[in-house]
From TrEMBL:
It comes from Leucothrix arctica. The keyword Repressor does not apply. Keywords: Membrane, Transmembrane, Transmembrane helix. Pfam families: DUF6644 (PF20349). InterPro entries: DUF6644. Coiled coil: none annotated. Residues 29-157 form the DUF6644 domain. It comes from the Bacteria. The chain crosses the membrane at residues 29-51, 63-84, 90-115, 136-155. This is DUF6644 domain-containing protein.
Length: 161
């Protein structure tokens, strides 16, 4: 792991991130915007899947999937840049490691939604017509992404175990 840290620290991208005072705060703003798009749209998707806001047609939540993906992409890019900019902090950080594991689980959960629940919605099912596991997928999504946000806030304050 030290070889990867040393290599990243020696890259021109690391130098650019660390030597320009405006880069890190700009990345944080973009990361926060991505988080707002990602989590804000997921709240709408998941709560509608759980049966809230029944007057909102469940098929109309599809537009929020696009916003979720845009937010995730912004966070993926800026998150990778954070790691390149300070690999010594991230690679040894237990909160970061758990956060990355939860994001992997969230990706699997999202695939379950897209592959199994969304087709039922497009076929005319409403939230009460969806299989029981659809509600589990929605609750897991909300829980995991809340934990990801909390763990992201822990990163500056914890080290490795």
């Amino acid at each position: 792991m030290n070889d990867v840290i040393d290599w990243l620290t020696a890259t021109p991208l690391n130098a650019f991130i660390t030597n320009n005072s405006w880069v890190w705060p700009s990345m944080e703003m973009i990361h926060f915007l991505g988080l707002c798009l990602l989590f804000g749209s997921l709240i709408i998707i998941d709560l509608r899947t759980l049966g809230f806001a029944r007057k909102l047609p469940i098929t109309s939540v599809d537009v929020f999937i696009t916003l979720t993906l845009i937010g995730f992409l912004l966070n993926l890019v800026t998150g990778a840049l954070f790691v390149v900019g300070d690999p010594e902090r991230y690679f040894v950080n237990i909160a970061f490691k758990i956060k990355m594991g939860l994001i992997a689980i969230a990706a699997i959960n999202a695939l379950i939604y897209i592959l199994t629940i969304q087709p039922k919605i497009h076929a005319g099912a409403d939230s009460q017509d969806l299989p029981r596991y659809a509600k589990v997928v929605a609750i897991v999504s909300l829980t995991i992404w809340t934990c990801v946000i909390v763990l992201g806030r822990f990163i500056p304050y914890v080290e490795d175990l």
